[in-house]
Each structure stands twice: as C-alpha cells, then as structure tokens.
Amino acid sequence: MNNPTDRDGKLKVLLIEDDEDDALITRSLLEKLSNPLVDLEWVPSYAEGLEQIKSHHHDIGLLDYQLGSRTGLELLQEAKSHGLHLPLIMLTGQGNESLVMDALELGAIDYIPKRIISSESLQRAICHGIEKARLQAAIAAHQRELEKTNQELQRKNEEIQRFYHVVAHELKTPLTAASEFVEILLEGISGSLTATQEEYLRLIQRCCGHLNRNINDLYEITRFETGKLSIHPQLGSLPELIDYAVKVFTPDAQAKGIALNVCVAPDLPLLAIDPQRIRQVLLNLLGNALKFTQRTGKILVSVCVDSSCGGRVRVSIEDTGIGIAQDQLERIFERLYQVNEDASASASGLGLGLFICREIVKLHGGTMMATSDLGKGSIFSFTLPYQSV
Amino acid sequence: MEKTLLIVEDDENISKALEVRLSARGFNVVTAFDAIIGMQKAVQMIPDAIVLDITLPGGNGLALAQRLKESAKTKEIPFIFLTASKQDGLRQQATSLGAAAFFEKPYDFEYLLAAIRAVVEHPHARLSL
Asked: What is the strand order of the sheet A312-319 is part of?
C-alpha cells in the first residue's frame, strides 16, 4: 500500500472543492498546523477529484458536498465502486448536515460542518481520519486472513470427508463379502457343517458385526467433527422404537438370564424425532446395559413425561450391572473415552458410542445424563422435547 | 417359472456370494461387473429385477439406473440399489430415480431377498427407502 507521507514528511491532503473562496480558507487553516505538517493539493471539480483519488498520491481527502452539478456523495459512491480507499472527510455546508449519515454509509471517514471549520477541527478530523483508516485497513487485512483460513479449513474438512468415504467404502466392501460367505457356509449351501465348524463360523459372524459397527462409529464421528451430521425429525412414536430395540436384545438377555423389562407411561405425546437416530441411541444404551450386567441381573427401560422439566419426555435405561466409578462417570460421554475396566469385564468398542448418542440427543434439543453406583448398577437417561415439531 | 436377476456389482466376491445365495433360493442369476456390460445384459435378457451397486467402473449405478429408465426396453425393470458408500443424498437420488429399494453394505440378506421377491412379483412396488 502507498504511504505518500514518506516522501517529505508532510501529510498529503487532497481538497476537492468547487468554491475557490472556501478552498482558500481551508488552505490557510491547514497552513497554520504544525502537527501534522500538511501539503495541500486542491482540485475544483468532480472529475479531477476522482482522478486524484485514483492516483493514490494522498494520505487523506477533504470533500465538499456540492461539486458543480454533481455531489460529494456521488463521488464517494464512485470511489467505493472502484475499490478506492482514500479516507475522505466530508465538508458539509449550511443545510446539508442531514446528508452526513448518507456520506458515512458511503464510506466517508468523518465530516466537518463548514460553519465550524477551524484549524483545530481540521487537525482533529485529519488525525482521527488517518488513524481510523489505518485501523480499518488492519481489520480488512485480518478479515481477508480469516476468510483465507476459513476456506482452507473448509477444504480440509471436505478432504477428510472424502477420505472417510473412501475408507468406509473400502472397508465395507470386503467385510460384506466375508459376511456373505460365512452366511453361505452357515446355510449349508456348500455342504453340511460339524457343530464346531458352525460354532466357529458364528464367531466370525459376530466379529464381522462388531467390525461393521466400529466402521460406522468412525464414520459418524467424522460427520460430527466436520459439522455434516444432521437429523431429520418427523412425528414419531417412541414406544415403537423402544419395542424394536428391546426385541433386538431379547435373545441375548435371555441367553444371559437377564430380565429385560419395559415400562412406558400411558398417553405419551408424539415427538419430533429422527427415528433412525433415536433407534441408534436406544440400541447403544441397551447394548451397553446388557454388556455390563452380569447373569441374572435386571434391565429396565422406562419412559415418562418429565415433570421436573416441562415439555420433555425422559427415557431411562436402568441396570443392575457393574456400575461406574464417580471419577469415570464424569468422563464417559467424552469422545474416545474408555471406562477403565477390570480384567474380568470384556472391553470392546472404540469409546465413541456414548459420545455419538449424546450428540444425537443434543441435536434433538435434549440432554443425556448418567448416574451410577459402583457395583450396583447404572442409569442412563435422556430427555427429548415434545413441544417443537 | 424361474425368475432372472441381474446383479451389477464390481466386487467379484460380493457378486459371487449373491449369485450363490440367490441361486440357492431358486433364482436364475446373471452378473455384470461394470455399468456398460450391465446395460448390455439388461437389454439382452430383460431380467425380472436388477440389483445395482452404485460405485461402478464404466459409469456409476445411478447413471446406469437413469439409462435403464430412458430405454423403452428396460424402463419397466425394477431395480434395487446396494452400496457401501455413505455419501450424502444417495438415498434421495435413488428415490428420485425410481429405485424399488436401497440397501447399505453389509446388507441383511433376508431383507434383500424379501425386497427382491416383492419387486419380482410386483414390479411397481416401492419399498421404504
């Protein structure tokens, strides 16, 4: 950027003024200034004024309102449309002070009513104007820097998304084939199996299921982090989703001798929910409860209208499992946090499930919480608002 | 009468698995590993339904579906998408192309089979996408 003052230490001031007498007065007032020392260039017309602004030879300009048949406002407008950045102080005559707001909106840096013009008012306006222009330029430079950084971040986000698309695709394709051939063997299409062979194949089948869930969790997490995950709420029935989740886990619960019960309050309102996402939350919480509850334990899924917090439905999943220590309880919703289990409990998962659940509930405008008694059990619950559709 | 299915899937393992399982359930299965051969076989054989991968060499599955709809010979053949891609908006695109069903890999074979049976019997059936 030009810095015209460097040439001889004087401030280069452009005066655009069609009245010669006014120009002479302004010149004499400026000549009295000792700080800053001013080198004034006067042009009497709109066209010459614009030409000089374009020349970038000045530090600041003084602009009269009336310029022959045209106005200072038009000149401000034209300078702005050309992207010219000379700070301009508007000189307003008797009766046109009301145009000040228009002038400031068009980019004038300050104004001086001609009736009170003095060396002091000129000095103050010029010094402030120069400083204001410097700050505006600095802000504009910062803004450009921020925009550049923002664009860079968006580009990187998109790159990450693309990478995870590829990863998900490349992992899921062979996983699908592996699962399919296990199924083919289990169906007996390629011959009969011994009991041990079938047992081992079921093991592989379960591992494929775990792997698929982990890939899905990893994929979801990138969608949260790149702000791409959204929900598509529709009016839905929570009991139906709970019924589905309970049915999914009933065989496993029965195999472990765990009593899996449901208690849904009557007359629940319909909720604006994304059924797929809420089902995901329920499956995750119920899966955890089952994983951390020993044989002959109990799990209760309950739904009620939360009286402590109007307009909300609360879903709770209560188990009689191993429980979580207080210091760990505070961190279980953190991304990648794994409860530090003892060797007897089976650890699995990436530590993303609860984080994803909480984010899904948050997207619904609800909250998720957990309480626990170590050795006695845990309660995971979440609320969902029902007033908004 | 034996129904004919065309599987357009570039992963040979998945294609083979589908061929084995669907054949075992009484279907006559024809396979194609890219969109071009897929279109050729669809025109030649006029299968009862097409199971279509989305990421395919020689033009993706969505483009192939579009061509199937545009050809007088193939426009009535119901098609089902099968994809490992989680790209945004694929389901919506599939719906707007008139897909009968949409499955993500790894799919549940029994659901896929039920969808295939439904569209083979009722070519205009649209299952929940």
From this structure: A259-264, A298-305, A312-319, A377-385, A368-373
Angle subtended at Cα A30 by Cα A27 and Cα A33, rounded to the nearest 5 degrees:
155
Contact predicate B52/B97, CB 8 Å:
no
> Residue written as tokens 């009468």?
B1
**Residue whose token pair is 């599987």:** B7
- Kindly report the backbone phi and psi dihedral angles of residue B80, in degrees, each rounded to the nearest multiple of 5, phi listed first: -125, 130
CB contact under 8 A, A176 and B55: no
pLDDT tens digits, residue range A250-287? 998 999 999 999 999 887 888 889 988 899 899 999 99
Q: Which of B86, B103, B107, B129 to mutate to test the interface with A (most CBs of A within 10 A)?
A: B86
Answer whether A43's CB lies under 8 Å from A15's CB: yes
Task: Give the ipTM.
Answer: 0.83
Would the CB atoms of A228 and B86 count as touching at under 8 Å?
A: no
Q: Which residue of A has its CA nearest to B107?
A: A176
User: Which residues are paired to A378 by β-bridges?
Assistant: A372
Q: Which two tokens stand for residue B126?
A: 């649209």
Residue A165, Cβ neighbours under 10 Å: how many?
A: 18
Domains, chain B, ordered by start: 4-90+102-121 (3.40.50.2300)
pLDDT of A145-182, one tens digit each?
999 999 999 898 888 878 877 888 889 999 999 999 99
**Of residues B11, B21, B84, nearest to A184 (C-beta):** B21
* CA A176 vs CA A66, A191, B27: distances in Å: 78, 21, 21
